[in-house]
């Protein structure tokens, strides 16, 4: 299978403390990769390194078969992302925020804005200003902004934070739709195992900066009778059941 993101032995130290330790990951084209780990495990830092927002202390990352250099920017036009939480211009409308983003990304396709709002269920509120939006609406708008330019890769850092159960279900359906209809490769982080289990093809489990496992979900299902949640908890807590 063709890797669109290949991470080779990256580490990151902040003031001498290693927060990412020798992590290697492979994200295949057209797949959903669930990046699982408890709070503070290092998920956001790895995602930021893929997006060139943070520079690894050692190791390398290849995206679309090109090694990322500190000056690399062009590849970012093919990636949509939400890192931590989406930030908008509060006094502008949802549409205006998406327009600004398209301009910044040099993406010219006006109908794409309404399409993106429609996909995330915000088509009725495009003219509303962001300060009138609820947290869940902002989260959806963040997804709309990430996908408005029709990227090849979506990187979503805990995208279900702030969503209600209906929003979570819709997010799951949206991710599967993007994969099926557009062939989008999706890297999604979460600490909620069941959410990853319902959509992912492959998972990487990170704990205290170390990637403990990278496996295909079908292999977990085949080899272990238990749920992904059991597997995850045993790995994180050093259980020997699945060693
Ligand atoms: N700029 C920074 N300076 C110092 N330490 C940092 C910095 N950014 C992240 N860290 C540390 O790196 C570790 C990993 O953080 P990171 O945000 O990547 O984890 P995470 O898995 O995304 O967690 P969460 O689910 O809570 O968002 C944490 O211990 C964090 O305190």
From TrEMBL:
Alphabetical UniProt keywords: ATP-binding, Nucleotide-binding, Transport
InterPro entries linked: AAA+_ATPase, ABC_transporter-like_ATP-bd, ABC_transporter-like_CS, P-loop_NTPase
SUPFAM superfamilies to which the protein is assigned, alphabetical: P-loop containing nucleoside triphosphate hydrolases
Pfam families: ABC_tran
One term of GO molecular function: ATP binding
Residue intervals of the ABC transporter domain: 5-233
Domain of life: Bacteria
Family: Belongs to the ABC transporter superfamily.
Name of the protein in its database record: ABC-2 type transport system ATP-binding protein
